[in-house]
Automatic annotation (TrEMBL), chain B:
<dbReference type="GO" id="GO:0042803">
    <property type="term" value="F:protein homodimerization activity"/>
</dbReference>
<dbReference type="GO" id="GO:0031526">
    <property type="term" value="C:brush border membrane"/>
</dbReference>
<dbReference type="GO" id="GO:0005737">
    <property type="term" value="C:cytoplasm"/>
</dbReference>
<protein>
    <submittedName>
        <fullName>Collectrin, amino acid transport regulator</fullName>
    </submittedName>
</protein>
<keyword id="KW-0732">Signal</keyword>
<dbReference type="GO" id="GO:0035493">
    <property type="term" value="P:SNARE complex assembly"/>
</dbReference>
<dbReference type="GO" id="GO:0141109">
    <property type="term" value="F:transporter activator activity"/>
</dbReference>
<feature type="domain" description="Collectrin-like">
    <location>
        <begin position="29"/>
        <end position="229"/>
    </location>
</feature>
<keyword id="KW-0325">Glycoprotein</keyword>
<keyword id="KW-1003">Cell membrane</keyword>
<keyword id="KW-0472">Membrane</keyword>
<keyword id="KW-0597">Phosphoprotein</keyword>
<keyword id="KW-1133">Transmembrane helix</keyword>
<dbReference type="InterPro" id="IPR031588">
    <property type="entry name" value="Collectrin_dom"/>
</dbReference>
<dbReference type="GO" id="GO:1905737">
    <property type="term" value="P:positive regulation of L-proline import across plasma membrane"/>
</dbReference>
<keyword id="KW-0812">Transmembrane</keyword>
<dbReference type="GO" id="GO:0035773">
    <property type="term" value="P:insulin secretion involved in cellular response to glucose stimulus"/>
</dbReference>
Amino acid sequence: MEKSRPLWDNPLQFVFACISYAVGLGNVWRFPYLCQMYGGGGFLIPYLIMLIAEGMPLLYLELAVGQRMRQGSIGAWKIISPYLCGVGVASVVVSFFLSMYYNVINAWAFWYLFHSFQDPLPWATCPLNSNRTGYEEECEKTSSTQYFWYRQTLNIAPSLEASGSVQWEQALCLTLAWLVVYLCILRGTASTGKVVYVTASLPYCVLIIYLIRGLTLHGAVNGLVYMFTPKLEQLSNPKTWISAATQIFFSLGLGFGSLIAFASYNEPSNNCQRHAVIVSLINSTTSIFASIVTFSIYGFKATFNYESCINKVILLLLNAFDLEEGSLTADNLNEMKDHLMATYPQEYAQLMPQIKNCSLEAELDTAVQGTGLAFIVYSEAIKNMEVPQLYSVLYFFMLLMLGIGSMLGNTAAILTPLTDSRVIASRFPKEVISGVVCFMNCIIGLIFTMEAGNYWFDIFNDYAATLSLLLIVLVETIAVCYIYGIRRFEKDLYTMIGCKPNWYWKIMWAFVSPLLIISLFIFYLTDYILTGTLQYQAWDATQVNVLGLGFFSVLNLSSCKDTSFFPNYTVPQSGLLEVRSWNQGHPLILWKGKPGKT
Amino acid sequence: MQCLSFPLHPGNCTALCTTAVRVCSSPDAQNAFKVRISIKTALGDNAYAWDANEEYLFRAMVAFAMRRYSSKSTTQISNVLLCNVTDRVSFWFVVTDSSKNVTTVPGSEVEAAIRMNRNRINNAFLLSDKTLQFLKITSTLSPPVEPSTPVWIIVFGVVLCLIVAGIVFLIVSGIQKHKKKNKESTERENLEEKVEVTLENGIPCEALDLKAGHINGVFAAEDERFTSL
């Protein structure tokens, strides 16, 4: 008796699975950054255009292929053309790379979640130094949230070579993360289908709570105004369009084989056209929604920092000139400064270097993306809210749900071809195959829990998937349109859904999307070639020149913004890696411009 | 220069006032300490005004601190001299030693005395280390309360147990279902084997004359005895 293919219990499970996979951390921590960099509200124009030109068509293509062939990526592409099963294998390999490093983010989210059950939050204050007369030196120089992230969470090494040892706390959290993923994929669609109800809907609940909380925070409006003020001149910058195309492409998770895997568990008569449109629209809407929340938080944090800065200046002046408390306020600060400068010119001149010029715009300008946004900026904002423990738990739980949802898709992309292949599936039950895959990934993932692990993470995130995915999706589109034949594909869709795809889909599949992908591919390739040696950013705990390293350049620290994370120095590796140099005037980037799946 | 000490013994007045004047005119003397008080920051609306009574209390507290530290009761309130009170509310103070010819007590002793009694002094004014600052005296910060087991390990343990229990449950129920399915399929296989060759008393059905097998002559005969209704 032949086993029938497991199916989703209902189409809703499939839609939730796709949403859970597509809506990931990138919607929360990359899109707001892009919005800020490329013209605020104006960025929505290229974003929506790219959604229509490449997002929806490519998503529909992958779902249709999966649903029609009813196999994982390797089997599906073998059916399309026996010479093309390499595309499927490439998808599996890329998914494997992704699942190796992606779960570390879930480990970090667990770490922060577990630490949210304390009062006060551990990242709210600096720890004391050994003789208890002040705060720990490294923490004093940066801030308590950054110290908690770089020292107490990552225990980051000064460079990639100084690998250090595996941090047992992070290793434990990583093991737990993999156990959770294993629990969710253990039974295949039976278990995944139930889990995605939670992982898809819970982030929205938390985002709504945060929206309400965020909009009522003091100073949130500053952030929102800053974000939504469109700077239309950015539309003439080609980077804007490239970033929009890239963001749509990677945000939907095309090319990994996960969408094909999910769709292969569908009923053959499922209306995947409608689902493709729904999923891509929900994904984009979530990005915009998340960026509203993020910008209210930004506004709150920037206002808070600005007001702290002003208060520090006021205190400095009060103490220096022994003025009465309350005589200096934020409103009369400038007049009083002029008055003091006139009355006590000598003392004022002595104080000048210490008086900072506080500026709200400067605070808002510090654009951050990636783990910096998720774990530093947000935790900094949370520690200043009332009942911070509640918001902290909610937020990191949401990050977990987003991360696990994406992991489910990744592991499905790896496991579906394995369970489809008769060679393996006949010998081992599904649970054993899943277990072996999770175990191997967990062991390899321990690299990312070492002291230099975050640098490896950066490398993987920047370079593991980008070019490969572009190539994979390009070959997929060309294969379906020209090798399999678009008329044959049309007929298949008619058999499945009952209606033929209209001219919009056909034109996008055959011409527009491949051209877009080719141009993206050429752009990134030339960018890599022109950049020369690859670079990464390193954390310097001492913020002094590293001695005796041959060639190094130390950043001029006074030009850094207050939230500067890295000074830089060069690691004398004549081979691959040196710390990237600062681009003056270019905002802080913790993630080099290459997007990962995140 | 305001002389703020009102000694009990009029005889010492001139000497003490001179000391005060001397100290106040060169405030970076080693044995003088600057104090900065931020009442409004600490208490907001409940802030009290800093007046002569508060100053008296301050001098009393410093004298108390000196007495407690050196365990001799020679320090009087009159030995504590304040000067240069500003609107910020900041001032300098110095402690004199009346037994040793009106010299100032060494700064290290004063510092140690204040350190020892910092808490009492703060509480007398409803202030804290940050709002009642002795500028040259660093305060010992209290360490944060740490439970014996870090909280995160407890939460981690709970979540880990739940997840492992879930995995074990799913695996075990999967194995049981698998066994049941195997048993059912072997039973069904055995049943199918039997159905293949149906036997009637050891004789295969095909060999029997079915018609003859269905009608039993004994019973059919009895039926004819009854009249039809």
